[in-house]
Structure formats: structure tokens, C-alpha cells
Design a protein that fits this description.
By secondary structure, the protein is α/β, with parallel strands linked by helices. It has 13 helices and 9 strands. The protein folds into 2 domains: 176 residues, Glucose-6-phosphate isomerase like protein, domain 1 (Rossmann fold), CATH 3.40.50; 135 residues, Glucose-6-phosphate isomerase like protein, domain 1 (Rossmann fold), CATH 3.40.50. Strand 1, helix 3 and strand 2 form a beta-alpha-beta unit. The relative contact order is 0.13.
Length: 345
Amino acid sequence: MSGQKYRNQELDKMMNTMEKLISAFPENITEALAIAENATIRPASAEIKNIVICGMGGSGIGGKLVASWVATEIGVPVEGVSAYSLPHYVNENSLVIGSSYSGNTEETLSCIEEAITKNAQIIGVCSGGRMQEICEENKFDFILVPGGNPPRTALAFSIVQLLNIFAKLGLTSADRLTEIAKAKELIVSDEQEIKAKAHELAAFLKGHVPVLYAETKFEAMLVRARQQFNENGKMLCWHHTIPEMNHNELVGWGGGDERFATVFFTTKDMHRRNAKRLEICKDVIAKKGAKQMDVEAKGNSFIEQTIYLINLVDWASLYLSDLKQVDPIDIEVIDFLKESLANFK
């Protein structure tokens, strides 16, 4: 067998694997909701005055998404931490959630160890690993989710469990979980339309540097999109939000050119002044020759709209990897980094 033929067969195998994982997203939501229903979360031991969700990459993005979804409902601040240490304010009135799909993410474990010293209230979300051991050793509540897949394909489990924790602690209503279930129904019923738009988006981005824009409340979705194009599509990408980009990045388009492809993620209920800002931005960017494409979210709630766009971009990132003939599963460079850090004392 020639080397090229072997490579093509291996690439096809990885493409098929990622396709199955993305296809499983709705099923994962259903399974995650069942896990949430049966999970036991004890009442807070002290009044919760702030919440910190610790997580990195595919695990950390769940915290950012959930924080944005509950921002207009929850009565305490929620902060996502993707680092080795916690904010100084963390104390016994803090809820610290360690979200690590593998259970072995060193930055997240470092935060949990620090949270213990600060007497914070701690809950873990993981598929096992050291996170589970710490929770069991210290009698912390934790929710165990199915493991064994790339963390970026396990998003359903983190977002559902985080919303479930908030609801069971009485910090939010259970309505957000209902909206997740409705979001699942939406992406199932619109599967073919989503895939068609994803093919269009992948073809639009091929050979260009993606620049992604949306309203501020969708920034977590933009981060997720960037991550998917990074990992699945093996490409650099950046994002910014409207209206903030009007106060800085818009000037940067003075150096823009045809290398860039801009994607505007929109909704029918976009703030009217942001819609006008977007219109003006399009005119400015068009003069620099950059391609432009609109992707409008479907859904009757913020969560439904976000899940719709996440699913669409997941598919687009897979189709883009196919167009570029790159392995959507491979994270060799991250594995190399972890191995190098393991030898660093």
C-alpha cells in the first residue's frame, strides 16, 4: 500500500470519527439531562456570594457559555477561570466548580487545590481522573460524565451539568434546562438546513483567515467557534464583539485585505443599534476587499440560538478539515506540550 493511499485511509477514518462525534451532540444532550436529573447536589453549607467555574479548552468553554446564559437571572457574579490560580476574593462564601472532562487538567486541579485552602464550597464535573479522587477524598459533590472522547465533543455534558448545579442550588430556575432540551429538538429538526449552511460556511472560509463577529452576549459562542476552527480545521482565527470592536478593531481594518473572510453571526432580535453598527461595519470592511458572510441563528431563546450556532460551526469546522485534507482529531502539538511540561519541574 502506498504511503499516500494509507494516509488517505487514515484521514477518512478520522473524518468519520469526528462526524459521528458531532452527530452525537443531540444524543449527548439527552444523556446529560438524564445524568443531571439523577445527580445529587447538597444544599450550600454557607450563603453563596460568588461563583467561579474553573476549566480549560473544551471543558472551560462550557463555563463561559453558562455564565452568559444565566447573567440576566442569577443574583451573584459568575466568573470563568482558565488559569492556575483563583481570584483573591474566593472564600467560604464562594462556589468553585472544577470542570475537567478528563479529570486531570493541571490548571483546573491547581485551582481546586487552592479552593480547598480557601475553604470554598467545591463541586466537580469530570469523567474520572484526579478530580474525582479529590472530590471523593474530601467528600465534595461531583457529577461523573461519560469519558473517552475529545473534550471539545463533550460540550453537552458540561453545559447541562453546570446549569443543573445552579438550578439544584436554587441559584437559577430549571427553565434553562428546558431550553437546552428545546435547543436539542431544534438542531435535530433543522439538521439538513444546518449542514447545508455549514458546507457554505466552510467553502467561504477555505484559504482565508476567519474573522468572527457577533453581539457581546454571544462572545462565548465566538470563543467556541474559534476553538473549533483551531482544533478541527487546523487554522488560526480571531473574533471580536459588537459594539466593542467599533471602539478599536474597526480602525485596524485600515490594514485589512483579501486574506480575511468575515463572518457576522446575527439574530432576528439583535439590538437595533448594534444592527445599525453591523451595517456600517460591513461597508467599511467591504472597501478593504475582505469577503463577508452572514449566519443567522434560529431559536426562540438565547440558549437555543447559541446551541444552533455552535452546532452549525461544529459541522463547518469538520467540512473545512475535509476541504483542507487535515485530520480533525489530531492534537499532536498539544500532546507534545503536555509531555514537555510533564518533564518540567
